[in-house]
# Entry
Amino acid sequence: MRIRMLTAVGGTLLSFAATTFADEGMWPLNHLPREQLESKYSFEPSDAWVDHVRRSCVRVGAGGSASFVSPDGLLMTNHHVASDYISDLSDETHDYMKNGFYAATREDELKIPNAELNVLMSIEPVTDKVNAKVTPDLSPSEAQAARKKAKAEIEKEAKERTGLTPEIVELYHGARFDLYLYKRYTDVRLVFAPESAIAFFGGDLENFEYPRYNLDITFLRAYEDGQPAKTPDYLKWSTTGPKDGEMTLIAGHPGRTQRLFTVEHLTFLRDVHVPLILNAYNQREVALNQFCGRSPEHKRIGTDDLFGIQNGRKAYNGILEGLIDRQLMGTKEASQEALVKFINGDPARKKKYGSAHAELARALEQYRSYYPEYFLLANRRTSLCQQFSIALKLVQSAEERKKADGERLEEYRDANLPSLELGLFSEAPIYDTLEQFRLADGMIRMARVLGGGHRAVKSALGGIDATGRAAAILSGCKLKDVAYRKKLYEGGSTAIAESDDTMIRFAREMDPIIREIRKRYEDGYESTETEVYAKIAQALFEMHGDKVYPDATFTLRLSIGAVSGYEEPSRKVQAMTTLRGLYKLSTQKENQPPYQLPARWVDRKDKLDLSVPFNFVCTNDIIGGNSGSPIFNRNAELVGIVFDGNIYSLVWDFQFDQKRARAVGVHSRAIIETLRKIYDANALVKEIVGS
# Structure
C-alpha cells in the first residue's frame, strides 16, 4: 500500500511538508492536526479519546497493524498480515490457508508459535537526552555513536522503570526523538481466518486495483498468563458502517515513507535502489512459480512467499513509475528550490542549514559505489534462507552480547533481545525443500549482481553450483532443532566456535564481510544522512511551523479522510462495492482461479443480503504497514479495516494526492453478514457486536 499529495504554499507546490488542504498526513498521536480536524470536520478529539484509540490499536509483528474489538483480547487484522501465522499452524492434513479456520470456543483457539503484538502505552520526548553528548567538534560517525549509546541507556532505564518494552523512535530522519513504551503480548492465538481464495479474491490480477471484493480479515486473541487478556480499551463495532462522504479515521503503523527526501535522494532510489529490488523480486517470482508448480505440497508451503513477492513487485513497479514521472519529480524540484531559497534568504539560516543538500548529495554519490553489496549482504532485509538468518543471529549475538549495551549493533541491545529470542526459538515449521530453494536462489542472485569474483560470492558458493552448495550446507545443518539453537545461544561464543553445524560455519564465514559493509554504511552514509536530514527538518520547521508531519516509521499514526469515490478518464468509480458485485465478477470469470469462490460461498449465496456493502475506498493517507489498521468514526466505532491502496496510491511513498488515490477497506457490515451466514461464527459475532 502506498499514497500521495500536492500542497500549495505561496504559489509553489510543496510535497515535503505542510498539509494546508485535503487529507494529507500520517500524524503521531502526540502531534495531531487539531486545527485541520476542527476546521474541515468540526471534530475536536479529547485527550481521553486519543488515549482510548492509542490503547485500542496494535502493532503486529514486524509489518502490520490491528485493533482490539472486544474487552477479552480479541483483535482483528488482515488475512495477509496473519498469513505467516496461519501457514505456520497448517500442515499437510490441515491447510488453514486454503480451507480457513474457526474456533467456535476458546478452547479451540490455536496458539501461534512466534507471534508478537505491541500496544503503545505512552510517548515521551527524549531529543535532548539523545543529543546530550553530541558536540559540534564530533564527526558525523562519532556523533552517531554518541546517540546510539545514549539511546541504549535511555531504553534500559525505561525498561527497568516501567517494565514495558521501550523503543526510541527517530522522527524527521533524526531531527527529533521520542521514547515509545509498549505493552507486549507473545501468547497469541488464531480465532478465525477465511479461505485465502476469498481473502485474496482476484489474486495478483486485482492487487492494488479497484473495485475490489476481498474478505481480507483474520481474528486473533491476545492471552496473558494462559487467559484471554483484559483489554478494556477496544473499538466498539459499528453495525451500520460508513456512508459515502462520511469522515473516516485510520490509526495504524505505516512502515516507511520518503516524503522528506531530497531530489538527489529520490534520484538515487530511482536509479539504484528500486531497480535492485525489482531485479530481486523478478528473479524470485519466476523461481517461486516453478517451485510451486512441482507438487501440491510445494504449492502449499511456497504460496505465501509467492504472494508476498508478487505484491512487492507490483508495488515497486508503481513506485518506479512515480519516480520517472516528470510531473512528480518536477514538483519535488520546485519544493526543494523553495526551501533552499528560504534557507539562503537569511544569513543565520544559511550558516546553519545551507550546506545540507550538498553534503547529502556527496554522501549519496559515495554510497552508490557499494550499495549493491549493502543491499544484498547487510541491510537486514535480505536473507538467503530462514536457517541462515537464524545462524547469523546466533553468530552475531554471541559476539554482541559480550559488549557494553550501548556499543552493540542495534538489534542486539538489551531492549531488543526479547523479540530476537522469540524469533530464534520459534517452533514454527521449517521446510527442507523451501529452504534449499531459497538458499540456492539467494546465492544465484548474489552472483548475478556482485559477480562471481566477489569475496562474498566465493564464500557463499564454495567453488560449486548453487544448488549443490545449498544442499551441502543444509545437509549438515541442525538448526531446525530449537533445543540446539538454545544451546548455542546460551553457550555464547565458545559454543559457536566449537559447533560443527554447517550453517553456523557458513554464517561465521559471511559475518566478517557483512559487518565490514555494514560498518561502512553506518559510518560513511547513515551518520551523514542523520545529520543532514536533521538540518533540513529544522529548516522546514522554521518555514512551516508545526504543520510538518514526520515520515512514517512503523509507529502509531492517525490519518484523516472521508469515504469518496473518484473519476477515471473513462468511468466514475463508486466508493463502495457490494456482495452482489462479488458474485457477478466471479460469474463473468467463469468461477475460475483466481476468481473461484470457496464452496461454502457458492452453497450459501441465497442466505446473504447481496446489497450489503463489501469493500470501500476513502481518502485517508496510508502506506505499507497500515494493512490491518482499523477504520473508525469520530465516536471511535469501527466501520472497516484497511487492506490495500488502489493503483494510484503507489506513489504515496513520496507524495500524496487524493484526486484518484485511495485507501481500500472491508466494510464492517460485510464482515458481520458473512461471519453469520457463510461461516456460522455466531459466538464470534456476539463477542464483536455485543448481542
